[in-house]
Design a protein that fits this description.
five-stranded mixed beta sheet; elongated
Length: 301
């Protein structure tokens, strides 16, 4: 070990000794001197370290989600197109655990597992068969409670949140109240649900690069079922450089390139030229020809 590393190790040992004697009430967790409360599994660490950032939906490259498939927990709004129609149906229709809604005298049709367009067609066919008056129903969704994502670990307000279709990993962390003092910012992950015997999807979330550099590489678009997990700081985290403690550096520790904002193709929409902003050529400045002024009148000489 070098002299610098020996000094760091001596300082760390002194801190551990002081905390052991004083108890370090409330301070040890923030410094990463105590054992982490929220840990990453060994397999999770391995997957995170080797998983490159995918080219999927993220900030500045979001996609539209598929048509909403109704599930128990959703709430539908079912009402006639004409408000003075003779048919009376309770407008708010929560989808029951068995996948049905209650239309009173018109029965309890199953709506779970279907899109709104399919539900609208089936409900209108049902009313046409059972109603003497021609009535057209419209179906809308007012509560998408069945499509959720989760933010857990070292955040101030962990929980589940409804997917609206525009959230990113940063939005999710903010919705969960932000990171706590004991959060390990360099080890945040986003995992996606997979089949029991399938492969696993574990993506690194480079928090500091997202908030300080505006790097959208790992600011993924949130999909239904996504889980963001923020582990706690490990022993001595933050006191020693990360690359001195492990064989390979963190996947977030990749070189960054500053985009010159006056180059063509650069800015919030990204660079349209190969090689990034650094490869963009500066616009040519046209030469300015001198203007010949007319001679002054003799009276002004």
């Amino acid at each position: 070990m070098t002299r610098f590393q020996l000094r760091l190790a001596a300082v760390a040992a002194l801190c551990v000794t002081v905390c052991g004697l004083t108890g370090c009430s409330g301070g040890g967790g923030a410094l990463g001197l105590s054992g982490p409360q929220h840990k990453l599994l060994p397999s999770t660490k391995e997957f995170r370290a080797v998983t490159p950032a995918p080219s999927g939906p993220r900030e500045l490259a979001k996609v539209l989600l598929p048509a909403h498939v109704v599930e128990p927990g959703d709430v539908l709004l079912v009402q006639p197109v004409e408000l003075d129609a003779p048919v009376r149906i309770s407008a708010d229709q929560p989808v029951q655990p068995d996948g049905t809604i209650d239309l009173g005298t018109f029965g309890r049709p199953v709506v779970a597992g279907k899109t709104l367009d399919v539900i609208g067609v089936e409900l209108n066919q049902l009313l046409k068969a059972r109603s003497k008056e021609p009535v057209t129903l419209t179906v809308r969704i007012v509560n998408r409670a069945s499509k959720e994502f989760y933010v857990l670990g070292a955040v101030n307000a962990p929980g589940k949140f409804v997917v609206t279709g525009r959230e990113t990993a940063l939005d999710a962390i903010v919705q969960a109240g932000g990171l706590t003092n004991s959060a390990s910012e360099k080890n945040i992950i986003l995992s996606r649900p997979t089949a029991p015997c399938g492969c696993r999807v574990v993506l690194p979330v480079c928090y500091q690069q997202i908030i300080q550099l505006g790097d959208t590489t790992t600011n993924y678009q949130i999909m239904p079922g996504d889980r963001i997990y923020v582990p706690s700081k490990g022993m001595l985290e933050g006191l020693l450089p990360d690359c001195l403690k492990k064989k390979t550096c963190d996947p977030c520790d990749t070189p960054q390139t500053l985009c010159p904002m006056d180059r063509p193709g650069c800015g919030t929409a990204g660079c349209a030229v190969a090689g990034g902003c650094a490869a963009a050529a500066a616009p040519a400045v046209p030469a300015v020809e001198p203007i010949a002024l007319p001679p002054l009148p003799s009276t002004m000489k």
